[in-house]
Amino acid sequence: MEARVTVVYGKQSSELSLVAAEGTSIAVIDVKRRIEALLNVPVEAQKLLCKGKELKTNTALDLSSLPPKVKIMLLCHPSAAARATPAAAQASTPDAPVAAPFVPAPSVEIVVAAHQIRADVVRGKDKMAFALDSTATVGELKVLVAAKTQVPPALQRLLSRGKYPSDDIAVASLVVRGKVTFMLLFDERQHIHNDVARSTDEMTVELTAHEAQFASLLHKVQRNFFDQTDLMLTVAHLIDQVEILQNNALIAMDIKTSPELVAVHDRSKTLLAKVEALASQVRTRNG
Question: What range(s) does the Ubiquitin-like domain occupy (predicted)?
Answer without folding.
Answer: 27-75, 115-191
